[in-house]
Every structure is written in structure tokens, then in C-alpha cells.
Design a protein that fits this description.
Length: about 250
């Protein structure tokens, strides 16, 4: 199993709640059953796009509560560590891509993961797209690169809403079986996000999340699953020291 071949996993997402929507069940299962050290990086603040113009001060109370909700969700899912940034919500295209890349590079340098999970590059949401681009650029397969595996996930209410004519469809090629306990944890974590939870039939509602996990499970002959796309996996990757590149 690819996930279990790693000792450090970095999850890079655009917004608070994306870590839950995309891989909440998987995070919970790995946190319970494996010795993998998991860190989540949340790049954006996740709220200010709901106003006509970005005004962080006007959202001060909500942003503070949002950060509390992040911790609540982390405690429910059980993963180990988190870094939170404040990039402008749904405005990642308004800042240089290099600035996002530098954040990912810093997190890679300090955490030293061998696997990174992030958004599907064809999502409707521009922040998801830019996050994917930043991860790919920051993890170029040079000889000294320690990341051997990059995997993307779907984000309900983002991935499935792209245009039917979009050539970048999310076509899973890796399924991870989860159980009832994991999907319950995912739903509880999502419900802890006071500004993001929704009622059925919205894709972020508890009932919809469970139905979606069941659908993924049915596809591969089990009760529940989360699905992914393996972007790159290098078996037995051993990074060479940086200076070796010049020898």
C-alpha cells in the first residue's frame, strides 16, 4: 500500500475544511492504524471572498473562530501537526505563484516528507489549481528531491463542479478503504467548521459525504473508500546529496 510505504506525509490544501473534505477518512485511519507522521498545511484563510472586497479586519472575529475550528477538526481526525497561512481566499491568482511555491518549499524543507497529497489540478476552484501547481513546481523530480510520491484528491463542491468540457477530469486510479469509524470522524470534523458545513443535498453535508464514500466503496467492492490520482510515484527513491548534482 503506497501510503504505508512512507514515514512522513505532507498534506497541502488551499482552505480550512479541504483537508477534511478531500481525505478526512484517510487521515483518521492512518492516524489510528499507522506510524506515519502527518502534517497538514492550510494556505488560505478561507473566508474573505464572501465580501465584495477583501477586508481582513471585517472578518476578524470569523477568522479567529475559523482557526479554532481547524484545531477542532484536527483533534477529531487525529493527525499530528499543522501550519496555517493567510493567503487571500479565492484570490490565489492575484499573488505570484512563486510566493505559494516558497511556502511549500519551506514546509518541505522543515518537515522532510516523502509523500505529498494535494488538490486535483483540474478543480473548479482557482485556489485549488494554484495549490496543485505550487506543489508540482516545488517537488520537481531532481536527483536530490526527497519526495517520491505525489497524489491528488477530489474536493466535494469543487472537483465535480468543473465544466463537462474541461479536459482535466479527475479520474481516480487509487482507492483507500476506510470504515464506519473513519467516515463518522470525517463528518464530525466537517461539522466542526461552523462557516463551511451545509445541509443535504449539498456535497458538504453529512449525508452527502457518507453517500459519496459509499459510492467510492461500491466501485471497488467495499463499504467505504476515498479515491485519489497518483501523479508520480518513484519506487525506492533515494535522494542524492545536493552537491552530487555537480559532480
Amino acid at each position: 500500500m503506497i501510503f504505508y510505504n512512507h514515514d512522513k506525509m505532507l498534506v497541502v490544501v488551499a482552505h480550512p475544511d479541504d483537508e477534511v473534505l478531500g481525505i478526512g477518512g484517510t487521515l483518521n485511519k492512518l492516524s489510528i492504524e499507522s506510524e506515519i507522521e502527518i502534517k497538514v498545511v492550510i494556505l488560505g484563510e478561507g473566508l474573505t471572498s464572501r465580501a465584495e472586497k477583501r477586508n481582513v479586519d471585517a472578518f476578524k472575529t470569523e477568522l479567529e473562530k475559523h482557526k479554532e475550528n481547524i484545531t477542532d477538526a484536527q483533534n477529531i481526525l487525529g493527525y499530528h501537526d499543522i501550519s496555517i497561512y493567510n493567503l487571500p481566499d479565492n484570490r490565489f491568482d492575484s499573488i505570484p505563484l512563486l510566493d505559494i511555491i516558497k511556502i511549500v518549499e519551506y514546509e518541505k524543507m522543515t518537515f522532510k516528507p516523502t509523500i505529498i497529497l494535494t488538490h486535483h489540478g483540474g478543480d473548479l476552484n482557482i485556489d485549488h489549481q494554484r495549490t496543485f501547481e505550487a506543489v508540482m513546481t516545488a517537488s520537481r523530480p531532481l536527483s536530490e528531491e526527497t519526495v517520491s510520491t505525489i497524489i491528488t484528491f477530489e474536493t466535494p463542491s469543487g472537483t465535480e463542479w468543473r465544466a463537462a468540457s474541461d479536459p482535466k477530469h479527475f479520474i481516480p486510479n487509487y482507492y483507500f478503504i476506510i470504515n464506519e469509524e473513519n467516515i463518522i470522524a470525517k463528518i464530525k470534523a466537517m461539522e466542526s467548521y461552523e462557516f463551511e458545513r451545509r445541509i443535504y443535498p449539498h456535497p458538504r453535508s453529512p449525508k452527502a459525504l457518507k453517500i459519496h464514500a459509499k459510492r467510492n466503496g461500491i466501485i471497488v467492492g467495499c463499504e467505504y473508500a476515498e479515491c485519489f490520482v497518483i501523479i508520480r510515484h518513484i519506487e525506492n527513491k533515494i535522494a542524492k546529496p545536493y552537491l552530487d548534482v555537480f559532480l
